[in-house]
UniProtKB/TrEMBL annotation, chain A:
PANTHER family: FANCONI ANEMIA GROUP F PROTEIN (PTHR14449:SF2), FANCONI ANEMIA GROUP F PROTEIN FANCF (PTHR14449). This is FA complementation group F. Gene3D superfamilies: 1.25.40.490. It comes from Poecilia mexicana. It comes from the Eukaryota. One of its GO terms (biological process) is interstrand cross-link repair. GO terms for cellular component: Fanconi anaemia nuclear complex.
UniProtKB/TrEMBL annotation, chain B:
Coiled coil: none annotated. It comes from Poecilia mexicana. Pfam families: Fanconi_C (PF02106). Signal peptide: none annotated. It comes from the Eukaryota. GO terms for biological process: cellular response to oxidative stress; interstrand cross-link repair; nucleotide-excision repair. The lineage of its organism: Eukaryota, Metazoa, Chordata, Craniata, Vertebrata. This is FA complementation group C. InterPro entries: FANCC. GO terms for cellular component: Fanconi anaemia nuclear complex.
Length: 343, 578
């Protein structure tokens, strides 16, 4: 453990040098390769221990010490957090490229482009040509993106969902305390209060990824439980996503199906009939659910899970009867839903 | 559009005139992102690369960035805009040139404010290109999950490739309504977009899928730029495609197919190629497979062979390639169709139909006793055909059609020359009564017409050669009659006054007699050695012997150990210096 702490500390110092020191002017290809090697080492440490509270704590303490001493030596230094360790290579590259003392030879090496198709871009050990490969990947994605249209859950969201599942899985496996994983999910969400609509397709994709192992199923289960416990998030997800995606989720996960049906009923019960508009409208303005959207949700649900139809229709009918058993529009939301569904 | 003039002197800066054109283009490309924009970009990509290469040369030849920027004030704008165009940066060569241009403008020791600012700008651009610092929610999430940039984008790329492949596989052309656009438009758009990605390894499954898409639409096809770019990459051996994709490429891009065929011919007839190497090259080339799958591909290949043959009639190596190719092609065809003979007419529309099935029946598929009769029939068919056409020729001297029928029949025979080899072998065991038709066939193979090749007189010489060999190899007495041997050798010598018999004809006869004749091994070897060395035809004799050996190695040939031993001995004899 001593050795690990020392190595991590040294690497953070290396990062600071890369960012702010004129010494990089003397770096050659070998030095840069070694620097990236150590950055990879830190990434590895992060992925092994990020869910382990004890070791994480020790590492964070070390970082605190290193950050402190670096700040004293270099006033312009930006502290490196534990989270940053997980993407140490990116940080190293970013800081190197921003350092005006970086020699032109290193830049040329990093941006070297092989025109032939032989270049294997999956070789993570290679620093030569690294930046050119990144540009190729990013550009290729931008070129291909319009060809996919605007699906509700795009390729980006799908990959993000898969990565979310991977991280969640490793967090769950590294600590027996479920609180760590909850903290992890909460922190992810917290960062994106503003970009919540972006997260919704990601969560959907995460829940729709095919699971090959018990561990993956457990992760999905954990995410579902967490989602159900956070009413606000669940509601947001059900508002933001299109009917088809929600229906797929319901088909795949019993828990989601139950929660979704419950939510639909709650929304319906909160609706008021506006005589002037001749429409049912949701009382609270915070959730933008319309009557039409709700019926669309139900219809999509029936298509994905045909067995649900009779069950739900019976329930709706029971509530309609409890409301007075009227056949006239505008008196019972349940009756009107049934009418809309039977059209 | 003015053609770019390449000037060699550095005092000239022709790029100053081209610069506004390219800047305008770069601005236009940045404004819209439609399939037509992509088409314009891929149309200009090659020229843009050439322009960037010139820029790079000129920037590198000037020592100070300040001076470069003085001469080319629009340079920064142009490079900057091009850097933000993913269609330009996705393509390997243009990305490389663009980056090199930027780095060439970087000053190691900036001497003034302009150069300092330029340095800053260059670093900023490079940093933005290679890192994700400014990109929105997606990347922020990945940072939070601690996923490295490269890994993330690589995974997204692979996922997109898979998804687009699926959607292409599902798209079908609905010919029902002429008003509704069919989804083939999306295939065209995809092919146009993928032009910069042709050499990107992760995109190669998509490129392959686009090529193999069944293009049933009348209106839309794969983009011309796409096929052209594929062809260029293919010529540079820069393409990563699986077998079926290559076959599809040939099917759709005539230039690529032609290039493949000519490359094969060149390598198969290069110095040092042996008959067994040729067979290996031909079957590895995928061309026989492609021909078997697509009749149109075969017709093109055959046409190329036809043209080449007309120019190199006496080149035995070339003829050997055709024969090998046909054999491989027929094998592939048999794999695809249970009754390959049924479709032969479609593949050989110009050949005499009655000869197709007889010539495409492999000698190994017939019982040994029937071979001679079969060949007799083939020979007499061909004789009839040539007589008919030559009669026509004599009676109608204004006939400009030429020996078309005869040529096609001969072309077919050249492609099925394994039957000629069988004929030569049978000539060893024939007597004077029945050697006629077989000799005619052999002569016809080497000298098809009377008018241009003097077939009739060559036949006389061929008969003389056969007579000599027949008597040489039936005399058991020792020593060899020297004069007999001498007169045979003289047949091989070129004569100034009259056209000479093709040496390979005579050598073929000799080699077969030596292998299959009744004389003891040593005598046969002695005769062969004397003939070959005195006429100086070692190489040709060795080639003929290798062909014989290869043919006998085929399954179904009626050779035994004794024969193989003789061939080995003969081979050593020929190679031995006198």
């Amino acid at each position: 453990m001593e050795a690990v702490l020392k190595n991590v500390g040294r690497t953070v110092e290396l990062l600071a040098v890369a960012a702010h020191s004129g010494v990089v002017n003397e770096w050659d290809e070998q030095t840069v390769t070694r620097a990236f090697h150590w950055a990879r080492y830190c990434e590895h440490i992060y992925s092994r221990f990020h869910g382990n509270p004890v070791i994480r704590g020790v590492l964070e303490k070390q970082l605190q010490l290193t950050n402190h001493s670096l700040k004293e030596a270099l006033p312009e230094y930006n502290a490196v957090s534990f989270l940053d360790l997980g993407r140490c290579q990116d940080l190293l590259l970013l800081w190197l490229l921003n350092n005006s003392a970086l020699p032109i030879s290193i830049m040329k090496m990093l941006f070297e482009t092989k025109a032939s198709a032989d270049s294997t871009s999956s070789n993570y050990e290679d620093v030569r040509g690294l930046c050119s490969q990144i540009i190729q990947c990013k550009s290729a994605c931008t070129v291909l993106r319009p060809l996919l249209g605007v699906p509700p859950v795009g390729a980006d969201a799908e990959v993000q969902g898969e990565m979310l599942m991977e991280r969640l899985g490793s967090t769950l496996s590294q600590s027996s305390d479920p609180l760590r994983a909850e903290d992890f999910l909460s922190s992810v969400l917290q960062e994106f209060e503003v970009a919540a609509e972006h997260l919704c397709p990601v969560i959907a994709a995460a829940l729709l990824t095919t699971t090959d192992s018990a561990a993956q199923t457990a992760s999905q289960d954990f995410l579902l439980d967490w989602l159900q416990s956070r009413r606000g998030t669940l509601q947001h997800v059900c508002t933001a996503l299109p009917s088809k995606v929600l229906a797929d989720l319901a088909k795949r996960h019993q828990k989601f199906r139950d929660a979704f049906c419950k939510l639909l009923k709650r929304w319906a019960s909160e609706m008021e009939y506006r005589v002037t508009e001749g429409e049912w409208v949701h009382a609270a303005t915070s959730s933008a659910v319309s009557f039409q959207k709700m019926t669309e949700h139900y219809l999509a649900l029936f298509e994905a899970c045909p067995s649900l139809r009779t069950e739900i229709e019976d329930e709706l009918n029971a509530r309609r009867i409890a409301d007075g058993d009227f056949d006239v529009r505008g008196l019972s939301v349940w009756g009107d839903i049934l009418l809309a569904l039977r059209k | 559009m003015t053609e770019l003039q390449v000037q060699q002197t550095t005092a000239h800066w022709p790029n100053v005139q081209e610069m506004p054109f390219w800047l305008e283009k770069a601005i236009a490309w940045g404004q819209t992102d439609t399939p037509h924009t992509w088409k314009d970009i891929s149309l200009h990509l090659k020229r843009l690369r050439d322009f960037l290469q010139q820029l790079l040369t000129e920037i590198s030849s000037v020592s100070s960035t300040t001076e470069t920027l003085n001469r080319l004030p629009l340079l920064g704008q142009l490079l900057g805009r091009l850097c933000w165009n993913p269609h330009v940066t996705a393509e390997g060569a243009s990305r490389g040139l663009l980056l090199q241009c930027l780095l060439a403008l970087y000053s190691e020791h900036p001497s003034n404010a302009v150069e300092g600012k330029a340095n800053q700008w260059i670093q900023k651009v490079l940093c933005h290109l290679a890192t994700d610092e400014e990109d929105g929610a997606a990347v922020a999430l990945m940072k939070h999950l601690a996923v490295p940039t490269k890994e993330y984008h690589l995974n997204v790329l692979k996922k997109m490739v898979t998804r687009i492949q699926e959607s292409i596989g599902n798209s079908q052309c609905s010919v029902s309504s002429t008003n509704k656009g069919c989804s083939c438009g999306s295939v065209w758009a995809a092919s146009e977009a993928c032009v910069p990605l042709i050499t990107c390894p992760e995109a190669s499954p998509l490129i392959g899928a686009l090529l193999q898409q069944q293009m049933t639409c009348i209106r839309e096809g794969l983009s011309e730029n796409f096929l052209g770019a594929l062809h260029s990459a293919y010529s540079r051996c820069d393409l990563l495609l699986d077998e079926q994709a290559v076959v599809s490429l040939w099917y759709q891009s005539l230039p690529s197919l032609e290039e493949a065929v000519l490359n094969l011919l060149a390598s198969a007839t290069a110095a040092g190629s042996t008959p067994s190497k040729v067979e290996e090259q031909v079957s590895k080339s995928l061309l026989p497979k492609a021909c078997a799958q697509h009749c149109s591909v075969f017709l093109v290949v055959n046409d190329i062979f036809r043209t080449v043959l007309k120019q190199t009639e006496r080149n035995e190596r070339v003829k050997n390639v055709f024969q090998t190719f046909t054999k491989c092609f027929f094998m592939e065809l048999s794999r695809l169709q249970p009754q390959p003979s049924a479709s032969l007419k479609a593949f050989f529309p110009q050949s005499p139909p009655s000869l197709l099935i007889p010539l495409f029946t492999m000698p190994s598929e017939m019982p040994q006793e029937s071979l001679k009769n079969h060949l007799m029939w083939v020979s007499s068919s061909l004789q009839r055909l040539t007589e008919e056409e030559e009669d026509e020729e004599d009676s109608d001297s204004g006939n400009i059609r030429g020996n078309h029928k005869v040529f096609e029949a001969w072309f077919l025979l050249v492609q099925c020359a394994y039957w000629v080899q069988v004929a030569v072998q049978l000539l060893v065991t024939s007597g004077p009564e029945d050697c006629g038709p077989l000799l005619w066939l052999l002569t016809f193979y080497h000298h098809p017409t009377n008018r241009w090749h003097h077939r009739a007189s060559q036949l006389v010489q061929a008969k003389a050669a056969w007579d000599h060999l027949y008597s040489l190899f039936s005399i058991v007495a020792h020593p060899l009659p020297a004069d007999h041997l001498q007169s045979f050798i003289s047949l091989l010598a070129p004569k100034p006054q009259q056209p000479s018999l093709a040496p390979s004809l005579t050598l073929n006869l000799l080699v077969n007699f030596a292998t299959f004749g009744q004389l003891p091994q040593s005598t046969s070897a002695e005769i062969t050695q004397k003939v070959v060395h005195q006429s100086g035809l070692q190489d040709e004799a060795a080639r003929v012997l290798s062909s014989l050996r290869l043919r006998l190695n085929d399954r179904g040939s009626f050779a035994n150990d004794r024969v193989h031993l003789r061939i080995e001995e003969l081979h050593n004899t020929i190679k031995k210096p006198m």
